[in-house]
C-alpha cells in the first residue's frame, strides 16, 4: 500500500495526506500539530510504501503535545510575560508618582471676617471693627487694610488705611483690627474693606 506524507516546515512533523487533492498551483494547508499554515505544493508530497502494522507503543514513539508546539508556546509565554511586566511597571510608576507628589492647594486671598460699625453713645464717633483671616495652610503676609465708609448715594464719605507695616499671618490665623472715626459723616450706610 502506498501512502502520501507531508512535512510541516515549522515543526517538522510528518502527517499523512490521505485523499486530499493538491492542484497544480498548490493549496493552503494547516498543520494539525502546530497550526502553522503554508502553501502546499505537489512536489512537497512524499510517497512511501506502508505496511499495515499495529503501532509500537514504546516511549520513543509517544509524541507529547508540549513537544510538538515548543516555539508557539514559547512565543505566547514571552508575550504574556512582557504584558505582565509592563502592567507591573506601570502600576509601580503610578503609585510612586502618587506617593511622592505633595498635595498642592491653590492659595486663597486673605479673608475679611465679621465687619461691624457701631456708633458710640454720644453720637460723635463710630467704631469700625473687623478680622483679617488667613485661610491657607501656610503663612501669608498682611500688608495693609483700607476702609471706606459709603454714604447713601454710594460715594466714599471717609477713607482710612492702616500703616504699611507688614505682618505675617500664620496658617489659619486671624488678625483683629479696630479704629474709631471721630465726627463721622452723616448718613453712612455701608462699609467697604480692602486688604492686601
Write up what this structure looks like.
With 196 residues, this protein is α+β, with helices and mostly antiparallel strands. The protein has two domains: 1-53, no CATH class; 111-195, Immunoglobulin-like. Helix content is 18%, strand content 38%. It has two helices and 13 strands; from the N terminus they run E-E-E-E-E-H-H-E-E-E-E-E-E-E-E. It has helices at residues 65-68, 70-100; strands at 2-7, 14-16, 27-30, 37-40, 46-49, 111-119, 125-133, 140-142, 145-151, 156-161, 167-169, 174-182, 188-195. A three-stranded antiparallel β-sheet has the order 2-1-5, with no helix packed on it. Strands 6-7-12 form a three-stranded antiparallel β-sheet, with no helix packed on it. The protein has a three-stranded antiparallel β-sheet with strand order 10-9-13, with no helix packed on it. A hairpin with a 6-residue loop joins strand 1 and strand 2.
Short précis:
The chain contains two helices and 13 strands; from the N terminus they run βββββααββββββββ.
Topology:
Layout: E1 2-7, E2 14-16, E3 27-30, E4 37-40, E5 46-49, H1 65-68, H2 70-100, E6 111-119, E7 125-133, E8 140-142, E9 145-151, E10 156-161, E11 167-169, E12 174-182, E13 188-195
Antiparallel strand pairs: 1-2, 1-5, 3-4, 6-7, 7-12, 8-11, 9-10, 9-13
Please mark out the parts with pLDDT under 50 across 5 or more consecutive residues, or reply none.
none
> Rough shape?
rod-shaped
Q: Return the string of H and E elements.
A: EEEEEHHEEEEEEEE
CATH class of the largest domain: Mainly Beta
CATH level-two architecture of the largest domain? Sandwich
Number of helices: 2
**Radius of gyration over all CA atoms, rounded:** 46 Å
Distance between the termini: 106 Å
Number of DSSP-assigned strands: 13
The portion of residues assigned to helices is: 10-25%
Structural class: alpha+beta
Per the CATH scheme, the topology name of the largest domain is Immunoglobulin-like
Strand content: 35-45%
Mean pLDDT, rounded to whole units? 80
Please indicate the count of domains: 2
Amino acid at each position: 500500500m502506498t501512502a502520501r506524507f507531508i512535512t510541516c516546515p515549522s515543526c517538522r512533523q510528518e502527517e499523512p495526506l490521505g485523499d486530499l487533492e493538491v492542484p497544480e498551483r498548490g493549496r493552503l494547508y494547516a498543520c494539525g500539530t502546530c497550526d502553522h499554515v503554508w502553501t502546499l505544493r505537489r512536489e512537497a508530497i512524499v510517497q512511501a510504501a506502508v505496511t499495515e502494522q499495529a503501532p509500537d507503543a514504546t516511549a520513543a514513539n509517544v509524541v507529547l503535545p508540549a513537544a510538538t508546539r515548543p516555539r508557539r508556546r514559547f512565543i505566547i509565554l514571552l508575550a504574556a510575560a512582557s504584558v505582565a511586566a509592563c502592567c507591573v511597571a506601570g502600576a509601580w510608576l503610578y503609585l510612586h508618582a502618587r506617593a511622592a507628589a505633595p498635595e498642592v492647594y491653590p492659595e486663597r486671598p486673605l479673608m475679611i471676617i465679621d465687619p461691624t460699625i457701631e456708633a458710640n453713645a454720644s453720637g460723635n464717633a463710630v467704631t469700625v471693627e473687623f478680622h483679617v483671616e488667613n485661610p491657607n495652610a501656610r503663612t501669608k503676609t498682611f500688608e495693609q487694610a483700607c476702609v471706606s465708609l459709603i454714604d447713601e448715594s454710594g460715594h466714599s464719605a471717609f477713607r482710612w488705611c492702616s500703616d504699611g507695616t507688614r505682618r505675617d499671618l500664620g496658617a489659619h490665623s486671624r488678625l483683629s483690627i479696630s479704629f474709631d472715626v471721630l465726627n463721622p459723616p452723616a448718613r453712612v450706610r455701608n462699609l467697604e474693606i480692602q486688604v492686601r
